[in-house]
Design brief:
five-stranded antiparallel β-sheet; Immunoglobulin-like; 11 strands; alpha+beta; 1 helix; flat; DUF1573 domain-containing protein
């Protein structure tokens, strides 16, 4: 009887621990202020069209430009799903990332500055195999950049996934 009580207690403690861990992972993203970022993008939506799971990863580069009078600091870059990774390409060609979905584990801070008049590339990499056979059909995923003023930009990728 004591073994059963100990096992049940351990299970309950484990579940509570997972709930606390999941909640803290969600809190790594800044609060949504509703503000719109002053960053400009060449495009905010890209549709891959029909893609096949058998062909693997697909990639899209978005160009972001700071056309304001002030440098813009971007502390955070996250994605809306575990199947999508984001990368930040620096002027020297080096890459920071991958950045992923906050509730799926630790997402490192971006902490990059885009100086006045400069541009950067934000790369979206989508894995059509991430959800297995259940992942067939239309997808709509987001990359979210947050600046220090609380402004947010959502970059969107779409596709029709086939086997």
């Amino acid at each position: 009887m004591n073994k059963i009580i100990i096992i049940v207690t351990l299970i309950i403690v484990g579940i509570i621990g997972l709930m606390i861990w999941g909640k803290s992972a969600q809190n790594t993203v800044e609060a949504d202020t509703g503000a719109i970022s002053n960053l400009e993008f060449s495009e905010k939506l890209y549709d891959f069209g029909t893609i096949s799971m058998k062909n693997g990863l697909v990639t899209k580069n978005f160009t972001v430009t700071n056309n304001t009078d002030n440098d813009i600091v971007i502390p955070s870059l996250v994605t809306s799903c575990m199947c999508t990774k984001a990368y930040f390409i620096k002027p020297d060609g080096s890459t920071k990332g991958p950045f992923g979905m906050p509730s799926m584990g630790f997402v490192p801070p971006l902490n990059e500055t885009i100086k006045v008049g400069e541009s950067r590339v934000v790369r979206a990499v989508y894995d059509p195999n991430a959800h297995g056979p259940a992942g067939v059909g239309p997808i709509d995923r987001f990359l979210i950049l947050t600046d220090t003023a609380g402004g947010k930009v959502q970059l969107e990728i779409k596709a029709m996934v086939t086997p």
